[in-house]
Amino acid sequence: MYYTIxxxxxxxxxxxxxxxxxxxxxxxxxxxxDYLQSAPFWSAYANGANSIEVDVFYKNNILYATHSEAxxxxxxxxxxxxxxxxxxxxxxxxxxxxxxxxxxxxKSEPYSSLKKIISVLKKYPKIIKNPAxxxxxxxxxxxxxxxxxxxxxxxxxxxxxxxxxxxxxWDKVAMVSLSFKSLSPWNGKGRLTMEDLESVKNTIEKAHxxxxxxxxxxxxxxxxxxxxxxxxxxxxxxxxKPELASIYFNSLEDRVFVNTLHSAVYKPTYESDQxxxxxxxxxxxxxxxxxxxxxxxxxxxxxxxxxxxQLKSIGFLKTSASDDFTTDSAxxxxxxxxxxxxxxxxxxxxxxxxPITNITEFLDRxxxxxxxxxxxxxxxxxxxxxxxxxxxxxxxQGIASDLLKSKLSLFIGGGSAYFDQNLKINGFSIVNSLxxxxxxxxxxxxxxxxxxxxxxxxNGRGNQxxxxxxxxxxxxxxxxxxxxxxxxxxxxxxxxxxxxxAGIVTEGIDFDIAISEAIAFxxxxxxxxxxxxxxxxxGGFTIPQGNIENGMIEGDFTxxxxxxxxVPIFAYGPYSQEFQGVYENSEVYHKILKVLNLNK
Length: 600
Fold this sequence. Notes:
Layout lengths: L1 H13 L14 E3 L10 H5 L4 E9 L2 E4 L12 H14 L8 E7 L3 H12 L3 H4 L4 E7 L14 E5 L8 H4 L2 E7 L14 H16 L4 E4 L5 H10 L4 E3 L2 H9 L1 H4 E3 L22 E7 L4 H10 L11 E6 L10 H10 L20 H6 L4 E9 L3 H4 L11 H10 L4 E5 L14 E2 L3 H5 L6 E4 L15 H14 L5 E7 L1 H7 L3 H25 L2 E6 L3 E2 L3 E6 L4 E5 L5 E2 L3 E6 L8 E4 L2 H9 L5
Parallel strand pairs: 1-2, 1-9, 2-4, 4-5, 5-6, 6-7, 7-8, 11-17, 11-18, 12-24, 13-14, 13-17, 14-16, 15-16
Antiparallel strand pairs: 2-3, 10-21, 12-23, 18-23, 19-22, 20-21
């Protein structure tokens, strides 16, 4: 009774975790040597395991949960650790009540041990009569020809592919299990050799031809190995880490993506690149949250290269805020736009809580035009840093008011709901199509993608970022004045916060299509500098596995938040070499003014 109460309390604690089994999942976790877990049965059950293994040793009329007689711990029996908790879990409807296989691995003499197992199981009719629970005998088993002598609720683990027994005996077999180490010494790091992979594939195919579920024991126990066995079609995946394996498998749907979007790689001419010739226009492109791994995912999913990877001037930015190791978008956007580090949540305000001149305001005094394009709401933190001054990023009405008073000649983004005032009163002509912007002769023009948030590419936004970039550049070029244009791909960050690889990849490739427009414009003009960077990294994103040929990316994450990792910066055009190296994000502003020969 002590063990039952103890484990019920522990299970209720474990069940608060959002890792319970999913219905109709493609994977099945086998908790190997489960009795060695700190919470036997409960940890595996709460984390959705479909097969739980307990070693038993029969001594003094007791079935101990142990690997050997020498390891016996009084009180740790199959009844206390497994049968009582299992019966209680189902009778109280705890957890997901997944289909469950209890694999009893006999370590003592098989016939006497199995006789005792049957005697004990009869005390638990709710287990042996439950169609969702299967009892499977492994380890020291009776002779195969004796399998049919045991009750219907007793099944066996068959451990050979040499031959298939009679149909009557085969009906008593629950699954086929083999030692992985007999096929390969692979330790779960890197990849199986081609020879070992072929041997493992052939073994799994032969096992499946027998018509029973298949399991390896003695397997490497890593994320790489779990994914490999899943892809190879192993039915029960062996692990000593049921909680970590459950988290891994249950998140695969969000972390594995096969890409179909393609960015046609633009090959620059390099005629103006890194040349010391006057810069007339600057295009600053910001991938929100777009760290090195995010960029890598888009590149690899796009066949191994993008327009961005054609650029030769590359550096890294340090992104910390003035008051925090890890920045938010407001402080990072302000640093890029003003050349000053500031506190998190600040929009165009210094550490003294006073407005700082941003680049669009400074360049206005030099007869430059400016524009902002984003796939966020136009009042979002990053674009707002280039035209607004508010103590907090949530002061959206104040930010909207600042837009009306700003020095921008062009804006494109979401968030029309924030603008109750008549924009025309403040000089902006609001249009309904991107083509109208490109051909417009208006002095100040704007377009809203949406009333609130902008749809993602996966949710139907289409090619709007690239079209907005192309038409925005047409509009600004038509004024025959120098200009500054900020273009933000905002939703790389959103998907990284949500730990969803599909969005990171598609938003990254969509961003590259817009980057192609900017680089092509720079080639045509000969006097335009293109800068591509990020405000910060989001998600602690990594790429453990993938496939360049089919565009498959498997990602992993360490957080749902921003990180302090440096972010890449790329540049193309005259004086692009000035942006090489490692430096603070606030230096971007000063470098832009330097190449424009407008140092304060």
